[in-house]
Structures are given as structure tokens and as C-alpha cells.
Write the C-alpha cells for this entry.
Amino acid sequence: MRRIMVGVKRVVDYNVRVRVRPDNTGVVTEGVKMSINPFDEIALEEALRIKEKGLADEVLAVGIGPADAQQQLRTALAMGADRAVLVQTDAAVPPLSVARIFRQLIDKEQPFLVLLGKQAIDDDNGQAPQMLAALWDRPQAVSCSKIEIADGKATVTREVDAGLEVLELDLPAVMSVDLRLNEPRYVKLPDIMKAKKKPLDTLGLGDFGLTDAAAFKTVRVDPPPQRQKGIMVKDVAELVDALKKKGLV
Amino acid sequence: MSKILIVAEHDGARLNASTAKCISCASQIGDSTIDVLVLAADGSAVAAQAAAIAGVGTVLVAENAANVEPLAAVLAPQVAKLAAGYTHVFGPSTTFGKDLMPRVAALLGVGQVSDIMAVEGSHTFKRPIYAGNAVLTVEVPAGAVVVATVRVASFAAAAQGGTAAIEKVDAGVALPDHTRFVSRSSATTGRPDLQSAARVVAGGRALGSADGFKIIYSLADKMGAAVGASRAAVDAGYVPNDLQVGQTGKIIAPELYLAIGISGAIQHMTGIKDARTIVAINKDGEAPIFEAADIGLVGDLFTIVSELEKQLGG
């Protein structure tokens, strides 16, 4: 079975303007819309396209999070994933533990490709894919904007500061995806109905022999420093004057 | 006492400015020594530049033909090995460091602090989360090696004037050949580098086309500025990806950021929060960019930019 494993994280929707809790322990998540991490959605879309090209047989969606993360996995199944696994925990799971969980699942599932978002838009860590590749001792390609699979190899284009970089990787490999890789499909109602019948297994952190001792301690969470309220100018002459006063032109 | 190792970013000939910023961040950890590690095929030129930065103790040079391109899978085992004895291993939060450092951390069996924006103590740091809409103060357990990336926009470059010793090292580890460099293409021209420029002129979707975007290049050239763009402008194909500013593009801190026809999505704003002065020019007076702008001007951007170019022409 040629299998692709995809990570699906439940995060605060990207349109939500997050607010820091008054007690500085985190951000407000109650009553806030939750979604699949947008980068993970792109990873899933890419996996589905690879399968639709006949280059894979199964797409497995893996989530780590609370019981409610089933909603995002059901969405992944509705998009077209064949089955899903939820590693259920209410604890915050740091990237290294995420990588360790995926590493163990790889032994069981034997994927030829692991596709992950390049970062989750809550913690903005951007670590799990690279950590997984390290633990697995396999190639990594971070921030992919194009993926081509052929003959047990992948040719990937990555977005880097200097422009675009092309790498050739032996498979299996881990890839983290960037925004311009694809545009994820919309889920249709019949697919949502069908997804209810697809298998979604639940495991616990204990199944992976993990504790969260490696997690960093959150000392506090603060709102970002606010910028001073600016001024409006009425024309270009005023703008140039204002810039000259600041010594900027 | 902290012993800090900084992984140098370079292109084989020149040390990237991000390294001096990492050194500046590291120097804020009191009672420490700072060494720089240059991994290269021929590291002599880069090592000399690193040795000239104030505050550097020793520059370690690991030369290997396999290091000719910065492949994380090739560099990480060397960094992990050479990190023995260090309390901290830092790299820049550029695409180079973001690729490499988590792989190093995993090989060392520790977590990573991403995007340090402030140093609160040897093991305590501030970093942005939720696209910069919250700031997390995080503490690494005492005794664990601190592997981190440094948000380069948050730190000034360390000064020149150093005379560090240069020492050749060999990690003596087997390197994989499962990852191969094919090519790199860069669309950037002779303009100032977006990440380090003092002035940036950036355009958004409102420019309407690649042709429309030409007024941004023209104004930038007149001002000696770098060119940036919003994600929308890149997605629409007006400009290449390396000009993108924001959460998934470059995080920059210029003296002047001129945002033209950019609405100001939170993902964009996170990339320019540290700009000294933000100027917004937009036809929509309700655009969120005006909330963050120091100076705002509402109107037709083609008229304004052409007028601005004329008035700055003298």
C-alpha cells in the first residue's frame, strides 16, 4: 500500500482576531471558531492530488489534540482522506513530542511520504516536520511550493529567502508545505455524509509512551506592544513634509 | 556561565547579515562566550568576516565538499556533533535557520525556541505567537541545551571590530546523500536587500497587474529602497515570492515602510511591526493598514505615487 501521512492540527481560525487572557496565561479560545491549520489543509490537498494522479493508494490524516479535534479530522475525511487517527490529549503537545508520535506511527503505517504544514498558525513554531525528518533520518523539504513524484524520488521547489530552491529527495521523505503549493478544494455536502462512515481511530499519549516533561514552561503571554496612533495627511505635499521632518527622505 | 554557538548563514562567499544579529542576541545573555560555526566547502572568506564581528570568541570552520549548499539533512548532524559542550545553539530565523535548527534540536533531543524577539534570561525568552498577536515568554528547563532561532528583525547587527581566532574543526560524522541540491533561482535585481534595507516600498493587490507594479519599482529606485509585496500581490503573480513580507514571508524592520495599495491583513502586519515608520497609501480609508500606520494618505495610488516621485525628484 502506497500511503501518504498528513498532519491535521486544530487551531484558532485564521480570521479570528485573537485576544490575550486577562490573567496572561494564554489566549482566549472559548467560543472561538476552530479550523484545520491552513497549511495542513494545503498538505492534505497535495496528498489527495498525488493520490488522484495514481501515485498513492491511501491518504491517512493524523491529528493530535482534544476530543473536539475529531471535527477537523472529519473535515479531512470529507475532503478525501481515506482514514484518520486522533492522538487524543488535552495537553499542549510540543513539536518534539509531535515528531516522536509521528515517528512511531511511521513504523506502523510505513508511508512513503509525510506531508505537513510548514507551521501551525497558533504557536508559529515551524519545527515538527524538520524534527520528524531528523528522528526518521530521512530527507526533508521545508516550505514546498511544488512537488513532483517519480521513480521513488521527489523533485521539490522550496520557497527560500533568495527565491526558489529545487531539491531532489529520495523517498520516503518529509515535506512541509507553503501557501502557493495549491488551493485546497471545498468540501461538498455528500462528502461530509460519506466521511461519517470513514474510519477514525483514537489513541492516547500513553500509546506512545510519552509524557510532556520536555515541554517548555509558559511564563506568561502578553499582548504585543501597540504602535502609537498615527496621523492622516491630505495630499502628497503634506506626506513629503512629514517624511522630511522625520528625516526619512 | 553560558557557552553559545551560532551557526553562520552565508552563500559561500559572504556572511549573511543575519549572523551579526544572532551574535547581538547572544550577547544579551550575560556571562557568556560566543563562538561562530561556519559550515562550508571553503569557509576561509566567510570565517574571516565572522572573526571581524565584535564579541566573537572563536570561529569554527567545518569544511567539507558536501557543505557547498546549505542542506539541513547534511548540516544538522555536523552541528549537533560540534554543539557538544555548548549550553546554547542559535541560528537565524531566516529560511536557512528555520530549515536547519529544528533538525539540530531533534538530534540533540531537545525542543527549540523559535523566533527569539527578546532575551529575558539565559533560559527565558520572548517570542511571537498567533502571527505576532500575542507574545509568549517561555522558559527552557535548566540543564537542557537551548536551541533557538533568532528573529533577526528584533536585533541590531553586532558591531565590527572583532579579532576572533579561526579554528578548523571536523565533526567526523557520516553525512547522508539522500538529499541533493538541484538549483536556486533568484529574481532579485541590483536593488537593496529586502531584509536589511533601511527603506522599503511595498505594493499590494491594488496595483492590479505586474505592469501596474512597475510604479513600485520606479519609486523604490528613486528612493534607494528595497521592494516588498503583500501575499496577495505575490499570489496574483505580480512579483516573485522572495518579495513577500508577512507571517509566511519576510519579517522586516526598516526605518521606513511605504505600503502602497496594501490593505493590511494581520498576516502582513506581523511582518512589519518593527518598522520605525509605516506610511500607508490606499484608496480605501477604512483599510486596516491605517490602524497601524504612522502616516496615512487616502487616494488614488497611481496618482499619488506619480506625484510622490515628482516631489522626491529634486
About this structure: The CA atoms of residues 93 and 175 of chain A lie 20 Å apart. The domain at 3-220 of chain A is CATH 3.40.50.620 (Rossmann fold).
